[in-house]
Amino acid sequence: MTQTLQTGRYQKSAHKAAGAVAGAGLRRWLPLLALFTAACAPVDAQQRNASINAQPQAAAQAAQPVISVPPAVLAGLPPTNDTPALAAVVAAREAMQRKQWSILGALVPQAKSDPLGMYPEYWLLRYQLWTPPASGRPTAALQQFVSSNPDSYLADRLRGDWLLAAARSGDFETVRKLAPVKNSNAQIECAILDAQHMTGKRVTAAQATSAFAPGSACWALYDQLVADGVLGWQEIEPQLRDAIEANKTTDARKFVQYIFEPGDLKAYDQLMKDPMRWLTRQDRLPVGRNEKELVTIALARLARSDVSVADSYLRREWSKSGEWSKAMAKSNLAWVRSQYALTAALKLDSRADDWYREAGHIRMTEYNAAWKVRAALRQPKIDWKWVIESIDQMPPAQQADPSWVYWKARGQAALGNKEQAAAAYASIADRFDFYGQLAAEELGRRINVPPRPAPVTDQEIAEARANPGLRRAVQLFRLGWRAEAVPEWNYSLRGMSDRQLLAAAELARAENIYDRVVNTSDRTEKEFDFSQRFIAPFEGRVTAKANAIALDPAWVYGLIRQESRFIMDARSHVGASGLMQLMPATAKWVAGKIGMSDFTPDSVNDFDTNTVLGTNYLNMVLRDLDGSQMLASAGYNAGPRRPHNWRSTFTHPVEGAIFAETIPFTETRTYVKNVMSNAVYYAAMFSGQPQSLKERLGSVVPLGAETTALP
Fold first, then answer.
1. CA 561 to chain centre
2. What is the pLDDT of residue 30?
3. Rounded to two decimals, what is the model's pTM?
4. Among 468, 455, 397, 407, which residue's Cα sits nearest to residue 435?
């Protein structure tokens, strides 16, 4: 088998019209398609003046990476042929995006013979599902598509779309026939439960609350179950409080309607607008369950304006001995106190731990339960008994999370229960993540790269290349359609063995689809190829940029792996771009600082520009934060001022792991853990020497009030 390694063109993001494979050769077919489909335009009254502009854009060529290839001879897929059918697929996608449905319909048969021909057909059927023609839902065409494309991502997705459309119209028999859906979600599961309930198989409250997530199908299920008396105060009130805590006011209002009397809704709306004003106007003690819940919610909402004022008011009016305090159940006031504690914890306010202790071990959301432990870890003298008790109050699934296994084990070790601690460390020490590494070090191990498995064989890679779903995904990546390519790829991995996953990852490597190399290899359970999981592409050019300014290449690679998964034109939801995810303003500022005279905003995705600017900015943040890679990782993600502020809230030195665990932003907390864990493995791979995460994390020493001039 000949080894064929394509360039990095398949990393183009979904907003691009098409990749290089749909280039000049493909363009010759587009005028014919335009002439043919233009005649269909008058059918769409709202689209009469619309026209197709399906000419694909040429994809930028990325640098050829050095690939560590096992002895097996590997290859990507053959080059994509330019055909009229492929041109029809490209034109159909643009018609779909422009809502030119008659044009899309005309292109469906033209696209049929292409390996991606099912996509235009799916787009049309999905439109007809939710906007059925006068003749009704195209049941026969839907069934034909599902049966003609067995075990495909789009067939399963269409089943889910069809199921939801049937549920919305009350066609519960069709819902039951279509269930189950392999690639399911909360709305599909709620629709299935609703259909079961409406066709004679009574659904329990536990089933409904377990499946629920806000969305039309789940609200429809709740509407029915509340009306039938399956769901009541006992089930709804905790969900109302959880929504209040998360400030999901739309969801909370819906829950309120389920359990409050109509007369109470006006009071609820008033207290949500101004809780203090509403509370001070209450001229009688709360008597009924609803009245007490309204007061409880109002007291909790006070903390959103000023937690100190809220605490003072609560102690003055509701926590003292007297009629008002006696009118409220202790459990209600405990929940209010837990809300003040959470507000304080997220602001790194030292009072949080005291307020959690006042609340006691009551039911909390998983989010709040986690912060209860984090607040305890921030104390100058950690009460490990309280930490263990708090973790033990978590739901079983949360307790099993490696982070809480680790911190509970730390508590057990601190209290002298060495054997219990060692057993807990051992249960997670083989995980290739932040807490797996910390646990391994607690057991006296240094961090090494596991032995590489047997190379992928010719037969295994041939099977990967023959997999229809993987083939479609590669073609989609080549077109730059990541939004379609990623779920197609992931769906195809279902049920694969470790060897099949390794082969699929090698196919992705041969195609330079680096994020799929990492994410696919990450799924293996017994065989671990770190040349895939911690791929280091781009011919050492990242290392060269890091070495040029004396920056640790392992850390830089660890950061890029987390930032972009080596997707050259990755773009975040906030507008950060490229391998190192630079914000436009930051890129411009750094370019000015280092004298990059040829910088333009459009060049931020260029490999050299992005990595030069990214490594220089990272180095500036590192120096500004006293050489701490952990603090600099936090600053790179959340802005350099924030780790300065977070460090200043401590009254005492803390170990790096505690600082990382108590970062108040969920995204940054996860980011820092992953970057630092990644860096340890890259360092082990680059040096061939055992590593220590604890040493890399270091400790954090507060410096009082801090500031920085970095943007």
1. 15
2. 55
3. 0.91
4. 407
